[in-house]
Structure formats: structure tokens, C-alpha cells
Amino acid sequence: MLSASPALAAQAGQPAVPAPAPSVTVAVAPIGPTAMVTEPCTPSRVGGYDWGNLCRYQKADRQVPQPLRAVFIGDSITEWWLTTAPAMFAGGIVDRGIAGQTSPQILLRFYQDVVRLRPRVVHIMCGTNDVAGNTGPTSPDEYAANVLAMVDLAKANGIAVVLGSVLPAGGFNWRSEMKPAAQIAALNAWLKDLARARGLAYADYYSAMATPEGAMKPGLSSDGVHPNAAGYAVMEPIARAALAEAEKPR
């Protein structure tokens, strides 16, 4: 509610309201460009809560050798790639997957686990847990916004991008009521269009691993979602070709 000046209040027969005190300007020292992001791992210490799991790779990030060729960021499919088929992660390629994560969580740690490491390329693969609703419902538009934000962060920092397709799945063992095949196919159609429109490399694992119904091909996974050694053996040459494509001058 706005207050009348003392003179106008008197004319209107209203009680006068004192004039506000003069404002005081306080000089604030400028913050340096890196002062607030030198150590992003600052979760709430109440219960150790760290929604984005920002501290997961805190020590490993400090020990990454330079120059770095690529960072693979994603969920369990990325995380377990290192333990199941470690040959992929040699020659300056590091794994920054975290099981169970959705696109907003991966975006939250993208600066810390990708940009600060200064790789030539980032391989982004997520979406399975968004479809499953691991952190609540995620609409296709919300998923797209999160992926676009990661792409823009990478591009703004001179990092080439590989978009990895969402792997096929006919169902989730932790959400047995869901039938995700159609949603996964729709996300992959969008990812492929985005890669084409933005000049990004696209690692099409889906086409090599999916049945006509959109499930994982037999023999490539023990649970229909996560690749086994045979599944990662299918993925590795696709990943390597996409990395090489991303590194080409554009």
C-alpha cells in the first residue's frame, strides 16, 4: 500500500506519514569470476543431504590428468560401464556416472564434473530414470530443457558434445507397472533431431540394441535395462565413433 506525503495527507484530512529516511548505499566488493565455484561440493550438513550427489567425485575430480579427452556423464548405465568394461575409459576418458540419477540431478553437477575438468568432449546420456520417475514426474519438455542446458553449458566452454541415445527397455524391475518403450523411443527421436539441428555427434545405441518392440535385445542385459559385458561390447565402437566425430573441426 502506498503512503501519501505529509502535505497531501493534511489536505485530505488524513494523518501525516513521516517521510522515509534517505537511502544509504553500501559499497560491496565485487566477486571474482571463480570465487563462488572453486569448490561446488557444499551440500547441507544436516543429515549429509546432497540431492545432486555433488560430492561423489570430489576427490577424483582433483586428480584427473590433463589434457583430458572426454567425460562421460550420466546415470547407472554410464557408471557401471567403467566397472563392467573398463577398457572404454583409457587414454584420457573418465566416467562420471551416478546410479539412479535423473536429468535435473546430472545438470546440477554438470559444471563441477564436466566443465571444471576441461575435456575436449562430453558424452551425455540420460533419460531412463526420468521416464521411470526416480525423482518425481519429469515431462518431455522438462527433460528437453535439462539436456539443452547441458549442451549450452558445454558449448559455452568450448566442449564438443556427444548425445547418447536412451537405451531400450521394455520395462523397469523397480517400476513393474510401467511400459516405457514408447516414451524412450520418443525421447530418442528428439535427441536425434537435436543433434542434427545443433551439429552434435549422436551415439545411436538404441538402434543397435533394441528389438522391434523397443525392448533390450536378449543377451545384452541381465535385467532388460542395464547392459552386461556383451551390451557394453556393442556400445563401445558406437561411442568411439561418436567421440571421433565430435572431435572433427567444425
Return the CATH topology of one domain: Rossmann fold
| Beta-strand residue fraction | 5-15%
What string, H for helix and E for strand, traces the elements in order? HHEHEHHEHHEHEHH
CATH second-level architecture of one domain: 3-Layer(aba) Sandwich
**Residue windows where pLDDT falls under 50 for at least 5 positions:** 1-36
Biggest beta-sheet profile: 5 strands, parallel
Give the C-alpha Rg: 24 Å
**How far apart are the first and last residues' alpha carbons, in Å?**
57 Å
Helix percent reads 25-40%
CATH-defined superfamily of one domain: SGNH hydrolase
E-strand count = 5
CATH class of one domain: Alpha Beta
Notable characteristics:
10 helices, 5-stranded parallel beta sheet, alpha/beta, disordered N terminus, 250 residues, Rossmann fold
Q: How is this structure best summarized?
A:
This protein is of the alpha/beta class and 250 residues long. The protein has ten helices and five strands.
Question: Care to describe what's here?
Answer:
The structure is a single chain. This protein is of the alpha/beta class. The chain has a domain of 171 residues: Rossmann fold (3-Layer(aba) Sandwich). It is 37% helix and 11% strand. It has ten helices and five strands; from the N terminus they run H-H-E-H-E-H-H-E-H-H-E-H-E-H-H. Strands 2-1-3-4-5 form a five-stranded parallel sheet, with helices on both faces. The radius of gyration is 24 Å and the shape is globular. The N terminus is likely disordered.
